[in-house]
Amino acid sequence: MFDTRRATEADAELIAEQRLKMFVEMGHPDDKGMQLMQRNFLPWVRERLADGRYVGWLVADGDRTVAGGGMWLMDFPPHWRDPQALRAYLLNFYVAPEARGQGLAYGLLKAALVEARGRNIRVVSLHASRSGQPLYERNGFEASNEMMLYLNGEAMR
Amino acid sequence: MFDTRRATEADAELIAEQRLKMFVEMGHPDDKGMQLMQRNFLPWVRERLADGRYVGWLVADGDRTVAGGGMWLMDFPPHWRDPQALRAYLLNFYVAPEARGQGLAYGLLKAALVEARGRNIRVVSLHASRSGQPLYERNGFEASNEMMLYLNGEAMR
């Protein structure tokens, strides 16, 4: 039996740990960049859990937290798709290896979309891992036209 | 001869007009959604021009403004790609039809990337129109793994 609850400010560490596991289990090295991310993500998410800009869900199996997901209510330039300066960005969707294949990610996604609708949000975005992509596609998400450039001191000046 | 200058708070209307033209010339109807966007975008950009979160460039040919581009310094969850909670998002890149084909979009992009580097920003993102995509590709931008869902009251609940 899994229990899902809403995250509070006291869960900031737990969410930061799930974020780290998510990236590491995706194959990204737990290097200096990852450690810096951790150090900075913790106060970032704690502040937003406190003021309501980060809404999180955590799933427990008995006394073990086995999954979680988050929705960040982000500022965004008013657009013809949604004139509100507000979008929902989904992040930190994580299911522990031993709890996979039981619909937990789907349940978290459903909770987030119900929450987004309840707030009258029109655009929900996320960056999908290869393993997460099929779930999002099944639920209506489409690849966007976003492009990114990573600056490292070597590229165009 | 084209002159490029930095936008100020007094340019909010001009930037909002360029944003509207950009979408309409891309083929999006100038409908109720677009008008609502305009109404809400103007105070959004004015506030951010004033506090420095929106950096804009405007190109004039004599006394006519013929092009412009903007960079929004956005909050973003600290990430292993960049542990700072800050990314640059490029928007409102617009060149009037009569001024196209003279490298103005490239000049605006270059100005934005110099500014981003100067601020030690590591990730620059944007949503590319079909016609803008080749310019961004030539300058190192790559398609991201972003996915989007548009909620309209009809989809998954």
Task: Give a written overview of the molecule.
The structure is a homodimer of 157-residue chains. By secondary structure, chain A is α+β, with helices and mostly antiparallel strands. Chain A is 35% helix and 30% strand. The first copy, chain A, has helices at 12-25, 32-51, 104-118, 133-138; strands at residues 2-6, 54-61, 64-75, 86-95, 123-127, 142-143, 146-150. A five-stranded mixed sheet of chain A has the order 1-2-3-4-5, sandwiched between helices. In chain A, helix 1 (12-25) runs antiparallel to helix 2 (32-51). The longest helix of chain A has 20 residues, at 32-51. The radius of gyration of chain A is 16 Å and the shape is globular. At the A-B interface, helix 2, strand 3, helix 3, strand 5 and helix 4 of A face helix 2, strand 3, helix 3, strand 5 and helix 4 of B. Strand 7 (146-150) of chain A pairs antiparallel with strand 5 (123-127) of chain B, so a sheet runs across the interface.
